[in-house]
Amino acid sequence: MGDFISFLSQNLADFWTYTGFYNATPGHIIMILVGLIFIYLAIAKEFEPMLLIPIGFGILIGNIPFNMDAGLQVGIYEENSVLNILYGGVKSGWYPPLIFLGIGAMTDFSALISNPKLLLIGAAAQFGIFGAYMIALAMGFDPMQAAAIGIIGGADGPTAIFLSSKLAPNLMGAIAVSAYSYMALVPVIQPPIMRLLTNKKERLIKMKAPRAVSHTEKVIFPIVGLLLTCFLVPSGLPLLGMLFFGNLLKESGVTRRLAETARGPLIDTITILLGVTVGASTQASEFLTLDSVKIFALGALSFVIATASGIIFVKIFNLFLKKDNKINPLIGNSGVSAVPDSARISQSVGLEYDPTNYLLMHAMGPNVAGVIGSAVAAGILLGFLI
Amino acid sequence: MNNRIRKYIYICMSVFLGLTVASCNSNDSKGESKLVINEVLVKNVTNYQDDYGQHSAWIEIFNKSFGSENLAGCYIRVQNNLGDSIYFIPKGDVLTVVKPRQHALFWADNQPNRGTFHINCVLDAESDNYIELLDSGKKLLDSVTVPAIALADDCSWARVSDGNKEWEIKGVDSNKYVTPSTNNTTLNSNPKKDKFANLDKFGYGMAISAMTVVFSGLLILFILFKFIGRVAIYLSKRNAMKAKGVTCEKEAKEKKLGEAQGEVIAAISMALHEMQNSAHDYEETVLTITRVKRSYSPWSSKIYSLRETPNRK
User: Phi/psi zone of residue A24: left (φ > 0), alpha (ψ -120 to 50 degrees), beta?
Assistant: First the structure.
């Protein structure tokens, strides 16, 4: 009987070593708290819930402590575990192009086509990427890591994941979480910079209503856009190819079912998988490092630089435009390609100063140009460094 | 189409075609074989041993593509003073699949019964050896003439680096070493990364060059769509003039032809929606349009706005 009781107690003691309670470290607790904050922000504050809920819950999944020496094949970094297989889409970079397919199928480029000069604002805002790149170099990151960190300033989660999976896979978790976190925090980060860099007169500029865009123009746009951007930067092909393909599905008018699948079930499925696996990749042992802290700081900086450069560019651009063609600098922030959030910020800040000045339609132009610009920038970085 | 627009189209098309044609790479790299002869060692004295412990001459094939290539069914042909022989690489051996950017090594020992990678040819140490790699249809994939007389013992005739066009003698000094089944030049650094690390420590070069490319790309797109927009406006105006029977441009401008009113578009859209989704004889929907002086568009409606801005509660 004594042996049997000893056997039972030994069993329970063994089992205890497999539990999360036994294996928990302060790192796990910190990361679980971070995950809970993400979920709180998503539910209570409605900050990008589509992203923050999967990522936040993914952080919880990835930070459940377990006995890593037991070979349970449950961790995201353990080969052939379920999470590891799902993470394959992030690691090998095929989730982001599929997300871009959906984005293309849901994006209306009319605002951009009717006023193509807004494309240049999208280009100007990409300075955030290279500003952060320079600062990252100064902080001691090597050029490839600096480029992967800089892309956070493109405010494009899929692009950030795609580029970091190629240039700095070891930093991908921190870069992805940082990119998505700051995209969610666009309503907090951008308005103070917009107010700081504009005066009252500029904020009240009313822009001309865009003209109606014909179906032919909408069909030509993805075709010409693809040929032009990818001839220039072939390394951006996976992202730009899928973006413009998705848009052609939408605009052709004859592939409605395909477009609906791309912008509906497909993008939803990939968003879920991407969010959860990116969240789960923040396993405390891999994620809680000084580099992650630096990446978060650089991510915030890159958003600030991108927003500021978009606004300053519009102000300079206005010097060359006729009086009735001026651009409201409050749409400069939309060059940051957090679609459609940064455009929405332009709208809400614009309405604060003139309740009849609706900037949303104008801001969507640089916003979608920012998507193209950040994908082009990612292609350039890949081409330069690989 | 008026002459000005036509002129624009011709100029744009000419510039685009000119750029495309001018930038086309005319070198013969396109259409080149993915499988190439990469290194050949004729006088093997103390070099690499085969699986039988023999020092035989060897021929290394390199797959220069980024996809797997199968050598099965291909031929290796050797012509030298000893004769002209051809070896058929047998099918059915999984090892003939060469992975991306990897190598396959064939022993020229005239012992094909020893396995797939032992060929029925020998290399002549006293004369030039002409070696061909042929595909299954005996189409030439690659060829090389190995100047065996110029090669010392255990020295190979090899491409400077894998797949490179230039050949050199390897094994003569410590920087040029013989590399059976591995890269002709060992890559122990990332030259592109190093270039940026050494020449662009602060990132200005990257920022300037990359921003130039981003701006140029989007600037060209801007110019193109500025032009396409003008053509579209012209065409819609022309169609409207035709429909209304107006021939004078001034009159068309006064009547604002080609500039569709919002309510007209709304009515047409509703009619199309009704037709496509609920085709029936009697339409139940009545569209009442009240003109208001304030300019209105769906974009300015809160109902159609995207999600509400997050508010701190």
Answer: beta
